[in-house]
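Work Package 3 (structural annotation) set out to generate three-dimensional models for the target panel prioritized at the project kickoff. During this period the team completed the workflow that converts sequence records into discrete structure tokens, so that structures can be stored uniformly alongside our sequence database. As a representative example, we reproduce one entry of 255 residues exactly as it appears in the project archive.
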Amino acid sequence: MKRMSLSILLIIFFCVTNVMASEEVLIARVNDWPPFYFQQNGEWVGISIDFYRALSEESGIKMEFKERPWSRAMLDMKKKPIIIGQLALTEDRKKIMNFIGPHSSEKMIIGINKKHLNNDIKNLDDLVLFSKKTGRLIAYQQDVFYSKEFNDRINTGSDFSEHFEKKASYNTVIKMLEAGRISGFLEEKTTLIYKLKYEQKSDIVVIHPFVIGSSDVYFGVSKIVSNKTLKKLHEANERLQSDGTYKKIMDKWSD
């Protein structure tokens, strides 16, 4: 009887161990990009952090936050079980990742000096004319999807790209604009509103009403992640959309 009980316990132990070993843990990519990701009292917080946590809880898939610059995250995407939030869906990205979502949307806009707010900018050609008129370049960031038209033109047309300045980091663009070194900079609208309200208050920088691009955003998931895990993520995402959880998260950060 004792031998039978011991055998049963061993079977249960190995079954539980195998189940635990088979559970995938996703690397949830984070980086310093308020209000989507930033650290507060040693903890990661932000819009995308709340999205990660909601998806993890609803799907039952564990996620571990790991800080990664974009280039490192793209390398990891090919060989590690990584998930990245707040991504526009593009054909190039579809080659290396699966997409879950959408979970929200974003607008790409231009920050300018308030004295230029009345400039009539309705399309990208007007944006080029604005750069010519002010005699200064417009800053943008590499590897960011602004719109299909913008990204196509910046990568293929020198007559267009010569009016724009590539910046590796956006930490200095507000000061550059205030100093008159650039005529404007491209940014995601929620990000710029947050920066101007909480981080770099400015009496000079305003948001022009012209929208460069608007798109849904998704979670990007490494293609090495199992179909079982992907199915759980898709189903959880649909529930979070339908029950209003994602909207509540956005409303929380819009206050």
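Strands lie at 25-30, 38-40, 43-45, 62-67, 82-88, 97-113, 138-141, 164-167, 184-188, 205-222.
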